[in-house]
Each structure stands twice: as structure tokens, then as C-alpha cells.
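WARN retry 2 of 3 for item q-0093 after timeout on previous attempt; input resubmitted unchanged.
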Amino acid sequence: MSLRQKVIDLANSQDTNEGGRKYWSWWGYESRVPWCQIFVSWIMEQAGVPASVYGKYENCQYAIEQMMEKGVWHTNGYRPQPGDICYYDWDSDGISDHVGIVASVNGDLVTVREGNKSDAVGSRISAYNSPQIAGYASPDYGEAGTGNPSAGTGNQESQTGGDRYMFSVATVQKGSVGNDVRLLQELLDYHGYGLAADGDFGTLTKSAVESYQKQHGLGADGIAGPMTWKSILLR
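OK item q-0093 returned
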């Protein structure tokens, strides 16, 4: 497995870890601190990324400066790939406020795994060129910089109608709980269905899935299976 894919898989495998103790205590803190950049540093170190490629950073803006020095910082329409690092600038003041790891790219949408997203690990769906994204770092993972990022992974890989896409999700329905449900809720919220991403597939989530399925010509059974995932991820 490539180093890039190890980073992606490790980021995707993290539970919500509300409060972030697992990450900020690893850094050496005894009480909570802002931990989004610490989360990224933890993923990189645990995946075996050399410090010469991506160091142990606590501050987003400092990390960007280091990426600039390494020549792997991109703005102005750069299209990211999974394993890149996404930096946000919420108030457009030129100082990065938040960071996460690009987990997947589907058309113009990126899914980013983030620490300290509402004080937990979670996923954010946004346009790759959102004005709130300051830019992307593309660490030099070596052999992972070329070829198919999905090769040799433990992720679910689906092929339907000739369209090949990679995601780490399962069929979910009413009663399901976990990160796959949370990602589904975040996607539905992105598409305007007004869901809170709590990871619990209840009545409201089932209704939103049914509404989405009806709107897009899918069987409206309220179950998010392969066809529903494909539609919502690639739309």
C-alpha cells in the first residue's frame, strides 16, 4: 500500500473522538487546545510519513509556510487529490483557521476528514475551489505521487455503469449509526436537505434519503445503498 493511501485510510478510520483528547494529549497537552492541525500531524506521523515530507505542526499558518518552502503549496484553481492537505480561511483575512486531509474527490466536490470539526473528527463536503479554502498542500509521498491512489486499499470500490469511484462507506438505513451515516447526513445537508450530522440514521434521515431518491429518479426506499451513494457523491 502506498504511503498516500495509508494517510487516507488512517484518516477515514478515525472515530469521532469527541473532545480530541487522543490527539492533543499525544502532543503533550494536559487539557484541550485547538487540535485540527494536531490531528493532521498525528495522522501523518502514525501513517509513517517522514518529517522531511510533512513535519509535526500545531499551527495551520506555520504549516502552510513550511509547505511553501517545500514547493508543495497550491492555490488558484489547483485540483486536489486524496491525501492532499486542505487549509481553510473562514474570514478571508489571509490567515488559515482550520485544516483537514482530503479523503476523496468526486467531480468538483472534495470530502475532507478533519479534527476539531465541532470538537470531533468528522467529514466536510465542499467545492474544491470554495472561497473558504485557502489552498492545498500536496506532500511528496514518493511513489504515491503517481498512479492510482485507490490501488491496494481496503476501501470499498464500486463500479456501476462504467463509472469507477472509490469510497469508504456501507449501505445504511434506519437504525444504522456511525461515520458512514454521518457522511451521508453531511452530503444530504450539502445538497440542501437540512440535516444535522449526528451519525444516527433516524426518521429525519430516512425522510431526507427518500426525498433525495424521489428527486433523482431512484427507488425511494429510504436506504442508502450503492446507487444512492453513487448519485449523491458524484452529483
